[in-house]
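Structure in, sequence out. Go:
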């Protein structure tokens, strides 16, 4: 019976995505509460994406003319906040831990002479973002990399790296095959 109810719940989630104009070629999964989605742009949700949310709902905002793409097989945990004003690309099989924040805009000017900063974020395949990581505008994270819990990411982290700190800096390299998928 539980299996049947989960199947129905996930079919309803697919319908919920369609109502919010989320393009999804396959089926996503929800374990717990559904994410809050506000989509005014282009949102592509890959097949087999799992949202797990029991304590704090995930929130996804895609502004007008912005593009958000979440790759196949991604896992998104409790309280993740994705705010896309320009463009965010998350590669397949990426794991996003509790309370991670992805902002591709600063929202406000830092000083009167400078405009509001908005730059795309690119996260490679099979990346792991630890709990409470903050990814800021213009960041790129290479394939198979890990950003340690609590790090603030602004800039570029090469493929197969572990980054930590504020701001996040590479502390170690990872050796893995290109087809390896983190479990």
């Amino acid at each position: 019976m539980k299996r049947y109810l989960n199947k129905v719940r996930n079919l309803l989630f697919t319908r919920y995505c369609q109502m919010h104009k989320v393009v999804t070629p396959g089926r996503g999964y929800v374990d717990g509460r559904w994410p809050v989605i506000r989509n005014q742009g282009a949102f592509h949700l890959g097949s087999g994406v799992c949202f797990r949310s029991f304590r704090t709902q995930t929130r996804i905002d895609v502004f007008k003319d912005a593009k958000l793409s979440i790759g196949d097989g991604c896992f998104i945990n409790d309280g993740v906040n994705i705010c896309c004003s320009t463009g965010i690309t998350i590669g397949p099989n990426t794991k996003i831990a509790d309370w991670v924040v992805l902002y591709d805009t600063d929202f406000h000017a830092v000083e009167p002479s400078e405009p509001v900063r908005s730059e795309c974020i690119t996260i490679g395949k099979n990346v792991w973002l630890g709990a409470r990581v903050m990814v800021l505008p213009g960041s790129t994270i290479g394939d198979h990399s890990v950003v340690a819990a609590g790090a603030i990411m602004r800039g570029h982290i090469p493929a197969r790296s572990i980054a930590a700190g504020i701001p996040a800096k590479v502390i170690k390299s990872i050796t893995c095959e290109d087809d390896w998928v983190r479990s």
